Amino acid sequence: MVSIYEIIEKARKTGKVEKGTNEVTKAIERGTAKLVSYGADVEPKEIIQHLPILCKEKNIPCMEADKKEKLGIAAGINVGCAAVCVIEFGDAEKDFEGFVKTQLDKK
Question: Is 69's pLDDT higher than 80?
Fold first, then answer.
């Protein structure tokens, strides 16, 4: 099974991702975000707490990742990243479809 990090990394290499809470928020509001992920360890929580709410309104899948450092690495930067969103999946499209199915099966 693929992880959220693998999907983001593959999308970064073959599609398009946005990094950082501000860019992710803009992408959600514009309706260009196809998948949003944020770090569970982001402090203070106020930085990212609006993202799941916005995603729900726009019907965009939103996933919590365990570490912002791993999100940053997957997004191609050497520092922690509070939030990342996928704009174009590129080669990660099939991985994403499988990932969403397994997440829905868990619920």
Answer: yes
Which one, of 69, 52, 93, lies nearest residue 5 by Cα?
Answer: 69
Quickly count helices (H) and strands (E) in the chain.
5, 4
pLDDT at position 107 is 53
Q: Quote the tokens at residue 42.
A: 């982001």
CATH number at 4-106? 3.30.1330.30
Stated pTM of the model? 0.94
